[in-house]
Design goal:
Elements lengths: L15 H18 L3 E2 L5 E3 H7 L5 H5 L2 E4 L5 E4 L4 H10 L6 E10 L11 E10 L4 H17 L5 E7 L6 H14 L6 H9 L10 H6 L12 H16 L5 E2 L11 E9 L7 E7 L3 H4 L7 E7 H7 L11 E5 L5 H13 L4 E3 L6 H10 L4 E5 L1 H6 L1 E6 L5 E5 H21 L4
Helix pairs in contact: 1-5, 1-11, 5-9
The structure holds histidyl-adenosine monophosphate.
């Protein structure tokens, strides 16, 4: 083969593309149920946008961005995440607050590809602006957790933490830095740099020796100011009120720099080392840092490929394609009329125009994954019927043309209902 896709990218072709559509439709529905509306923003942004928000010391900005100079000598970056672009769009379009937006789209990070980790991947995200109550944090966390449950993912754990605010973080950083400096000689090289640049990042280190050392390190959640502590309590109460199970993970700091107060992640143990199905948190300073008014904000992004991996066992409704088969050229015009009728009735339909032979038409129906063949011979045309062949069972029976569409619609509903039963919603 002459061409292969770039490393770390993925093709979505049928039936996988159908599963992707299914997940996205569920996400849209769930987000809209919570009053979020869709925002579509560019996949490219000015590089500075991410440096100013995702963080000058974050891995995403320092190691993973696809950045290039365009022909007009501007530094452009393929978005590594959606939050900064959505925040920019909120301000640039002067949207009224409070404002709830959701998005679905590709993100780009130059990292080492592995199971569940790509260089181009899709995120499903929500962002709420202008709502400060901890009840909103609980709603947002609940939304993601319900979405995963709706995909049939049963082992998703919601982990929550609080990373404090600009009041309580500096004294906490000092405390943590002092703790780390005292033990510097036992830290890995990376963590020594992290101690100086952003001590919280040390919690992300995968080295066992560093993790062991952190066992007694001061935690953000134990060093919150009273307003942050109260907010964190409110989030936990909100989750309990909504019946969302959660665990507190006081080592979770998230990989991006903009978080304040609530940080959370959805973890699944069934998808390998890249076990974060999604994550998010509050970022109450971003709008102001971008030149807007002080505006609280919270959101999440879910990894679509990882969600699909975790939902592998779930049944997804398949498209109900009907293949029209003309037994001879005489029935072609009636076949074309039937195609139109089916499509007008909302049923997907195709016909093989290239083959005269009936066997070849059936083979084409098979290749297309048709659920039924609607066969037209001279008799059927004369009587106003079709011979409907079920391609799964091989059964064939005569159906009156006027009953055909209601019957196919009813079948489609049954299939959707069967899939739903498997979802444990
Ligand atoms: P993030 O934790 O960097 O947060 O990414 C969110 C999710 O995207 C991850 O949990 C994972 O499921 C998925 N993901 C990240 N990188 C990759 C990759 N290389 N391949 C496949 N999936 C990946 C954010 O992006 C924030 N913008 C979330 C947010 C929204 N915070 C507030 N609002």
């Amino acid at each position: 083969m002459k061409h292969a896709r770039p490393k770390g990218t993925k093709d979505f072709v049928p039936p996988e593309s159908g599963r992707k559509q299914w997940a996205e439709a569920k996400f849209r529905r769930r987000a809209e149920l919570y009053g979020f509306r869709e925002a579509v923003t560019p996949t490219i942004e000015h590089t500075e946008l991410f440096i100013k928000s995702s963080g000058e010391t974050s891995d995403v900005v320092t190691k993973e961005m696809y950045t290039f100079m365009d022909r007009g000598d501007r530094s452009i970056t393929l978005r590594p995440e959606g939050t900064p672009g959505i925040t920019r769009a909120l301000l640039e379009n002067a949207l009224h607050l409070p404002c709830r937006l959701y998005y679905i789209g590709p993100m780009f990070r130059y990292n080492r590809p592995q199971k569940g980790r790509f260089r181009e991947f899709y995120q499903l995200g929500v962002e709420s602006f202008g709502e400060a109550s901890p009840q909103v944090d609980a709603e947002v966390i609940a939304l993601g957790s319900e979405f995963f449950r709706g995909l049939g993912i049963t082992d998703c754990e919601s982990q929550v933490n609080s990373v404090g605010c600009r009041e309580c973080r500096p004294p906490y950083h000092e405390k943590l830095t002092a703790y780390l400096v005292e033990r510097q000689d036992r830290l890995c090289g990376d963590c020594r740099v992290r101690t100086v640049q952003n001590p919280l990042r040390v919690f992300d280190c995968k080295e066992e020796s560093c993790q062991a050392l952190l066992a007694d390190a001061p935690r953000a959640k134990d060093n919150l100011c009273s307003a942050c502590a109260e907010h964190f309590m409110g989030v936990q109460e909100g989750l309990k009120m909504r019946g969302v199970p959660f665990v507190i993970n006081d080592r979770m700091v998230r990989g991006l720099d903009y978080y304040s107060r609530t940080a959370f992640e959805y973890i699944s143990r069934s998808i390998g080392a890249q076990d974060s199905l999604g994550g998010g948190g509050r970022y109450d300073y971003m709008v102001q840092d971008f030149g807007g008014p002080a505006t609280p904000a919270i959101g999440f992004a879910l990894g679509e490929e990882r969600a699909l991996l975790a939902a592998q066992g779930s049944a997804v409704p398949e498209p109900q394609l009907v293949f029209v088969v003309a037994l001879s050229e005489n029935e072609r015009p009636a076949g074309i009329a039937l195609l139109n009728e089916l499509r007008a009735g909302g049923i997907s339909a195709r016909m093989d125009y290239d083959s005269r032979k009936v066997q070849k038409q059936f083979r084409a129906a098979d290749t297309a994954g048709a659920r039924y063949c609607a066969i037209l011979g001279g008799n059927e045309v004369a009587k106003g019927t079709v011979a409907l062949k079920d391609m799964k069972t091989g059964e064939q029976r005569e159906v009156a043309r006027r009953e055909l569409i209601p019957k196919l619609i009813a079948d489609c509903r049954t299939q959707i209902a069967e899939c739903r039963m498997g979802e444990r919603e």
